[in-house]
Amino acid sequence: MGNITFTMIKPEAVEAGYTGAILSRIESEGFRIVAMKKVHLTPERAGNFYAIHKERPFYNELVEYMSGGPIIAAILEKDNAVADFRLLIGATNPAEAEEGTIRAEFAESLSKNAVHGSDSDENAIIEADFHFSHAERF
Ligand code: ATP
Ligand code: MG
Which of 10, 24, 94, 108 has the smallest C-beta neighbourhood within 10 Å, fewest atoms? Predict the structure, then answer.
């Protein structure tokens, strides 16, 4: 396996029916889907996933949101996967996201911003391992 990143399509984007359109963007930008599943995170699992933000004022809101409905979790492979995927999704706040990015097109707000993307190679591996066994990767 080459360079990987980890993504989630967040609950409000799944609920809005954007899963197919977002996955189509991802594949057409040259990312290969290594693993994928739809899962409803418990508050505990969502809290553990975002534990790095535990001290932030928006942590409780974030955990409630991410456990509020099913998400699509996926491992993506491409050269320079982490940086290229952050470019494809755009800024955290969709109001600041470049035109043509996934968040500019599909995000609702700063907190409900449609997709997650890993911020480093190290975290991509941690996040992929959080959601997928090695037998689930192809
Ligand atoms: P992600 O980690 O989901 O890819 P990100 O790396 O662009 O997003 P982070 O700073 O890691 O941004 O924040 C994690 C998530 O927490 C954001 O995607 C957003 O859903 C939420 N969030 C971030 N900042 C705020 C804020 N100021 N108010 C409310 N929610 C926020
Ligand atoms: Mg982040």
Answer: 24
